[in-house]
Design goal:
With 78 residues, the protein is mainly alpha-helical. Helix content is 63%, strand content 0%. Helix 1 packs antiparallel against helix 2.
Length: 78
């Protein structure tokens, strides 16, 4: 019998932004080192764009959670 996985704690929005910026800086450095390479440059550019798309989706999801109004408890009539 498999034990269900516990959800991992959600990364804070601030930490997520820092990580995304660091990862994109690493990709941009790699792109600058392979400027003019007809194979590596387009592949790294594609990686950079894919990373931006995935990261922006996850960041938007995090921001929606952070800014969502919390449900209010409804008390039953007495």
């Amino acid at each position: 019998m498999q034990i269900p996985l516990r959800p991992s704690p959600r990364e804070t929005t601030e930490a997520m932004v820092r990580n995304i910026a660091r990862e994109l800086a690493e990709i941009e450095q790699a792109i600058s080192r392979c400027k003019g390479d007809r194979i590596a440059e387009p592949r790294l550019t594609g990686t950079w764009m894919a990373h931006l798309l995935i990261s922006s989706k996850e960041l938007l999801h995090n921001l929606l959670i952070d800014t969502a109004r919390r449900p209010q408890r409804i008390n039953a009539p007495e």
